[in-house]
Amino acid sequence: MGQRNPSVGRRKHRRTRRWCIPRWPEIDVFPMSTVRLPFIFALVALTTGCDPRPAQDTPPIPNGFIEKEQFVKIHAQLQLLEAAHRQYMLKGDRDRARARYRTSILKEAGATDSAFNATYNWWYSQPEALPALIEEIQLHLDSLAMESPSD
Fold first, then answer.
1. Assign residue 64 a region: left if phi > 0, alpha if psi is -120 to 50, beta otherwise?
2. Cβ atoms of 64 and 115 closer than 8 Å
3. In a domain, 89, yes or no
4. Model confidence at 42: pLDDT above 60
5. Is the pLDDT of residue 80 over 80?
6. pLDDT in the model for residue 120
7. What is the mean pLDDT of residues 136-146?
8. Same domain, 69 and 42
């Protein structure tokens, strides 16, 4: 019998550089799983997460609904009232004065507090129409600022 070659059936370990007996070859069980998984996740997110809200999903108009033009005027006046309240511009008991002015604004417009709140909630539950409504309120506030006498 001849002498056995020491390198047959053996190889050097890649880290220690010592001779070792080879194991089964390493097989990647999930090839390219690092590429596939994010791709599948992105595909699912794009196809299911971006569905627009159906047109029939708009909430029903509440009882005592205030028309848009009137709602814009009331909302703008109430925003001015809130700004005055936050800037400590109301005299005396601020909370009582704010409630009194709010009641007078709604009474002058011919609306009730519950009708205004219902209309407010209805408009603010419509994300498609909300930017246009807020822009109209801002335009109304700008027109009120232009009309006010400058001191």
1. left
2. yes
3. yes
4. yes
5. yes
6. 94
7. 92
8. no
Query: Domain check: are 129 and 82 in the same one?
Result: yes
Q: Are residues 93 and 23 in the same domain?
A: no
Residue 70: C-alpha distances to residues 83, 92, 104, 140 (Å)? 20, 30, 15, 11
Question: Residue 20: inside a domain, yes or no?
Answer: yes
Domain enclosing residue 76, as ranges: 64-147
Q: What is the pTM of this model?
A: 0.60
**CA geometry: angle 20, 24, 26, nearest 5 deg:** 105
Please give the biggest Cα pair distance in the chain. Answer: 116
Q: How much of the chain exceeds pLDDT 70, in percent? A: 68
Q: Give 62 or 39, the one with higher predicted confidence.
A: 62
| 8 Å CB contact between 102 and 77 | no
DSSP string computed for 113-130: HHHHHHHHHHHHT-TTTH
Verify that 43 and 117 share a domain, yes or no: no
Residue 106 covered by a domain: yes
Task: Tell me the pLDDT tens digit for each residue of 88-126.
Answer: 888 888 889 899 999 999 999 999 999 999 999 999 998
Q: What's the rounded Cα separation, in Å, for the pair 60 and 34?
A: 47
**Contact 70/102 with Cβ under 8 angstroms?**
no
